[in-house]
Design a protein that fits this description.
Layout lengths: L5 E5 L2 H4 L12 H6 L21 H11 L3 E5 L2 H4 L11 H16 L3 E5 L7 H7 L7 H16 L5 E6 L1 H9 L14 H28 L2 E7 L2 E4 L5 H24 L4 H13 L12 H7 L6 E4 L3 E6 L10 H4 L2 E4 L17 H13 L5 E5 L4 E2 L8 H19 L4 E6 L14 E2 L3 E3 L8 E3 L1 H12 L5 H59 L1
Parallel strand pairs: 1-2, 1-12, 2-3, 3-4, 4-5, 5-7, 6-8, 7-10, 10-12
Antiparallel strand pairs: 8-9, 11-13, 14-15
Helix pairs in contact: 7-9, 8-9, 14-15, 15-16, 16-17
Length: 528
């Protein structure tokens, strides 16, 4: 890859930090959501997650070992502003935690890339105002962003306003799969997205007007999107359906920022369906002329998260069906059964889709500066698997397609693998694992163990790409040898942990039972 290309890994606050109610942190919508039974697989929570709040030095040493150029992490809004409202309360311990993290990264020559929002809205704002359904979030978030610029902007030069706002809107306010768990079909997601886009623009203008000249940083947004490929590339209806798939996903947020308004196809489809339902106005909100001008051009770079691809074809939904974001698109998604799928049923390895998505962005949005902010693969892990050859194959395939896109002229400047650690995976709990490092969650110390993919990715970074097939083959063999050795150590350590648990829990229990039985026998003896 070109000299100066940036390699990194990422994580997010709620998924890794833990310490959900420690040192003055306020509750987030994810704290409230996970504490309700039945919302998350096995009712697991991120209360302690990876204990990242207490293991900053350990995790930065791991980053140093990986030889990454940058680390993408998010700030927890309620950790530094417990109620989400600046005038009410600031948490100095939270601010100090992020200051220490940023300083430690820079001391180790690792560039911090900071996301202001990775889904953990302060719960107070959800309860008082309805969260992203309410336009008051625009000013509250802008106050929070300006506090971050004030406290950290002298050292942080890459800011992301929102990470994957599509999931915030669709899963939080349409299907209810994610916090805050609202099912506002057909309207909720569009309204939330509308306020998020306006908020992003306001924060960009705040930075541009107040902080840019002094701090010389950049502000962007990170959008996650799959690629949609027509089932029949010779069919105009399938090609149109694939176009809608992308526009309703990526274009929903990128089009206003780069072209000033929602995609025409999105406005047409939602508007037409709203009319057919007898509504006076479209369920998709509209921007005023002033708002379009204000929003257009508000991104110094585009962060792109990408995981997988779908085949797409036309499918018309009957009017009798309840209105929803998904039925508005008039399409069906398919997968090829031959595509590798090592873990969850949504994440198939389809590397060629990545190159097509990156080229689509180049064509649609004027070849913007791109940082890949999330790309990786998870596995549903029943037992410890350190020799993750499927992740190595995924990495190799997707990075290779990114390289082809660079050769196509796409302006990609950095790549962030997702993710550094196994962590809390939202409504899936700890059942899916994305990490380069295995975290033993059942051990109270939450130790981290490198997988084969960590060793392999380190080699990619050191070589700034792939030197030749023979050497890349050697990387693979060495990585698999290393993981086998680590696995043996882990197995021994697990046995020790189980023995410790036996001594800590089982033996005192047996001893207590023996005493109770002795008391009962003694009582019976004395009575007789």
């Amino acid at each position: 890859l070109p000299l100066g290309f940036l390699w990194g890994v990422g994580s997010s606050a709620y998924q890794t930090e833990g310490a959900w109610d420690k040192d003055g942190k306020g509750p987030s919508i994810w704290d409230a959501f996970t504490h309700m039974k039945g919302k998350v697989f096995r009712n697991e929570t991120g209360d302690s997650a990876c204990d990242g709040y207490y293991k900053v030095k350990d995790d930065i040493q791991i980053l140093k070992d990986l030889k990454v150029n940058h680390y993408l992490f998010s700030i927890s809004w309620p950790r530094i502003m417990p109620t989400g409202i600046k005038t009410e309360q600031l948490n100095e311990k939270g601010i100090q935690f992020y200051n220490d993290t940023i300083n430690s990264l820079l001391e180790n020559n690792i560039t911090p890339i900071v996301s202001l929002y990775h889904w953990d809205l302060p719960q107070v704002l959800q309860e008082k105002y309805g969260g992203w359904q309410n336009r008051s979030m625009i000013n509250y978030f802008n106050d929070y962003a300006n506090l971050c610029f004030e406290k950290f902007g002298d050292r942080v030069k890459h800011w992301i306003t929102f990470n994957n706002p599509w999931a915030v809107a669709e899963k939080g306010y349409e299907t209810g799969e994610h916090a805050p768990g609202l099912k506002l079909g057909g309207r909720g997601a569009y309204k939330a997205a509308h306020h998020i886009i306006k908020t992003h623009a306001k924060v960009w203008h705040s930075y541009n007007n107040t902080w840019r000249s002094e701090q010389q940083g950049m502000v962007g947004i990170s959008l996650t999107s799959g690629w949609g490929e027509p089932v029949d590339p010779h069919s105009q209806t399938d090609r149109d359906a694939a176009e809608r798939y992308i526009q309703f996903h990526l274009g929903w947020f990128a089009n206003p920022i780069y072209r000033g308004d929602y995609p025409e196809i999105m406005k047409n489809y939602v508007g037409r369906k709203s009319t057919q339902q007898g509504l006076g106005t479209s369920r998709l909100p509209t921007f005023s002329v002033q708002e379009k001008t204000y929003i257009k051009g508000t991104s110094d770079f585009l962060g792109i998260g990408h995981f997988t691809t779908r085949y797409v074809l036309q499918k018309t939904f009957p009017l009798l069906e309840a209105s929803s974001y998904h039925t508005d698109r008039d399409l069906a998604e398919l997968v090829d059964p031959k595509w590798p799928a090592p873990g969850p049923n949504w994440l198939y390895s389809v590397p060629w889709g990545f190159r097509r998505l990156l080229n689509f962005i180049k064509t649609q949005y004027g070849n913007p500066l791109i940082y890949v902010t999330e790309n990786g693969v998870s596995v549903k892990e029943q037992c410890t698997q350190l020799c993750d050859e499927w992740r190595i194959e995924y990495l190799k395939g997707y990075i290779n397609e990114m390289l082809k896109a660079l050769n196509d002229g796409v302006n990609v400047k950095g790549y962030t693998a997702w993710s550094l650690l196994d962590k809390f995976e939202w409504n899936k709990g700890f059942s899916e694992r994305f990490g380069f490092y295995h975290v033993e969650f059942k051990n109270k110390n939450k130790p981290r163990y490198p997988k084969a993919s960590a060793d392999y990715y380190k080699k990619i970074i050191s070589a700034n790409g792939f030197p030749n097939p023979r050497e890349v083959g050697n990387w693979y063999r060495k990585a698999m040898d290393t993981c086998s050795t680590t696995h043996q150590h882990l197995a021994t350590g697990s046995l020790t942990t189980r023995m410790e648990m036996l001594s800590e829990i089982v033996l005192p229990t047996v001893f207590t039972l023996c005493i109770l039985i002795s008391i009962v026998l003694l009582t019976l003896y004395l009575r007789s």
